[in-house]
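Board notes, transcribed. Complex of a protein with 2-OXO-4-methylpentanoic acid.
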Amino acid sequence: MVELDWKNLPFGYIKTDFNVRCTYKDGKWGELEVSDSEYFPIHIAATALHYGQEAFEGMKAYRGKDGKVRLFRWDENAKRMQRSAEGILMAKIPDHLFHDAVVKAVKLNEKFVPPYGTGASLYIRPLLFGSGAEVGVRPAKEYTFIIFVTPVGPYFKEGFNPVRIAIVRDSDRAAPLGTGTLKVGGNYAASLRGVERAHKAGYGSPMYLDAKEKKYIDEIGAANFFGVKNNTYITPKSESILPSITNMSLIQLAQDLGLKVERRPIAEDELSSFEEVGACGTAAVISPIGEIADLDSGKVYQYCKNGKPGPISTKLYETLVGIQYGDVEDRHSWVTIIE
Ligand code: PLP
Ligand code: COI
């Protein structure tokens, strides 16, 4: 184990020992290679650099009380990366290659998997991009797949404490029939102005409304949105949000807890009726929301008035994190132990 201030890790980049790489050429994937370099030589005409032909994933490895290292629903990340590849015409990574690359990257850097009980985890970042040269706008013929890992603490400095969110109306991260449902770099480039605006106004993340009508909630920065009222877990249905694996899991856990679940458009107005609201994602886990401010209309919605996350968000958080670290029974077979 390396010496790091595990309990105070930021959500940021810390160099680890190795990353893994693989190249797609002449219609097939080559062998997985291990590198100790943080750099990658790239052709100046690579489609990733010019036309944004790039997708990534975000997942985590968790060390349990038993010292074992666990992955959470890695197959869903593999599937989503395949959908992203399809969406922007890249070569797809087969499940077995995705799995072997993740396991290799984690094992080679095992000493960076944070100790149990520190609240930290090893963030795994697979990326896939067009590395072949083209000048016309067309898909590359060569692709590169890389996985690096980095130990991380909470995405929001608040951890499992209420965060403040700002609705931004002067930029959109994705269009309804665009790439919003894919985890492609271009969406994040498009979100940067919103992120900056929220940060400058003193908020943790922007909330995007649907691009067409600016009426319904889409998502929050790099996380999905959920609200709870009348024993019901409600989360947006939209053509421009990323299908979150965390959200999908919370829907199941909410049902297990006896809550009703609704996936439907949620108008901004409805925000005033929720008992609890939160942001969810791999990085964000569950971040309870204490305030949502519409920066343009001046409207403010407040939650967690006693300063504490609500009871349902807390139960969902404890169950999800418990499963991920191996403390709660994995009834849905979501966890893979890395042997
Ligand atoms: N929405 C966006 C835009 C994201 O970047 C992420 C992070 O991956 C999520 C939602 C949450 O998805 P997941 O729970 O699969 O990490
Ligand atoms: C994740 O939750 O894995 C994300 O992708 C967040 C990230 C864009 C920082």
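The chain has a mean pLDDT of 97. The longest strand covers residues 121-130.
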